[in-house]
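[worker-b] picked up task from shared queue
[worker-b] task type: protein-ligand structure
[worker-b] ligand name resolved to pyridoxal-5'-phosphate; SMILES cross-checked against name lookup, match
[worker-b] sequence length check passed
[worker-b] input payload:
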Amino acid sequence: MWKITLSDLVLTAEDKAAVQDALDSNWLTMGSRTTAFEQAFAEALDPADPPHALAVGSGTAALHMAMLALGVGPGDEVIVPGLTFVATANAVLYTGATVVVADVTSADDPTLSIADVERKLTDRTAAVIAVHYGGHPGHILELRRLCDQAGVHVVEDAAHSPVADSPPDGSGHIHPLGAIGTVGCMSFFSNKNMTTAEGGMVVTRDPEVAEQLRLLRSHGMTALTLERHRGHAHGYDCVALGWNYRIDEIRAALGLSQLSRLDANNRRRTELFARYHRLLADVPGLELPFHSRLDEDLTQADQGRRLSPHIMVTVLPQGCDRAAVQGALKDAGIQTSVHYPPLHRFTLHADHPRVRAEGLEVIENLSPRLLTLPLYATMTDEDVATVADALRAALAQSFERG
Ligand SMILES: *Cc1c(COP(=O)(O)O)cnc(C)c1O
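[worker-b] inference finished, payload out:
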């Protein structure tokens, strides 16, 4: 039905062999493959100083564990951007804490507005969750500085940005995304830049937080089934209220195999993202998030900064009929999506007593105009040209009708 889908899942012969090996090993729950995946991920993220990394069942589990490990609970407030997947906010709601929805900066920079975070910090704020929307880190270093001053934790929702770096700080150093805040959360859901089907990773540089995360992942138990199987432990104690947020060997094996191609795939995504921007920059009224910093990003990438574009977001001209544009692209065989419907308008969140959503002017303006175009590593340059031409034609048509 689609000529060009929104995203694409590539499973290689190596991926399948790795999964087959895990199945043949006769040990399916967390074991040596999980440990190898965690080590490889931590070393990929920061070869010079690998953080603690724990593989978990999903990105949502990672976010929930981050909140719990930081002691977030009833009476606390956590600031989240209003332009994100529902899991970011729900992780806060699970704990009994209050979600304070913050605005994004602009159409050019739809990441958490530092000015709005400053306005919304109170003495009840326990954490701010930064989302690297579309794979772009926004002002994460500035946010970290602000939150350090306020004594507030930064949690990175890095679901869109596995193994990438911040822009250089004041002394020219880049920092791996996910290891800048107290905890970083990755997702390996099947449409993300790398996949384990379902899966995620929590990352931290704090050994005490890492220990908490380890307990939270598996019932607060002091010994794992594997350790008992190997005769390393006989009994166990339960020292915290934990969950079953474990990954398994099948998915860890797939993750390890996928990780080996992530860097090449992220580079290809970067080329395709840049190509879209070159082809669409002059379309009247169309805005392209992160356009004004693209040249700088690409220059920094040449100097070793890793980029990780995840989705190709556009902001349609003011007053444009998005459904008509999506329909025209669908007729051309091109699948599109919207990232994201505004969080504070969902039935659950709109009337929730623990969701506070005020002063979200930028999101109110942007959200009806957002349109996501196909982006995946196996797209061809011609595919990008086909999508760009189809969008240009659809917009011209909608202006004629307009
Ligand atoms: C995918 C995603 C999540 C949730 O990850 P799952 O692995 O699907 O649970 C959280 N935040 C953002 C921004 C995401 O895109």
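[worker-b] attaching auto-annotations
[worker-b] Residues 275 and 327 are 24 Å apart (CA to CA).
[worker-b] releasing lock
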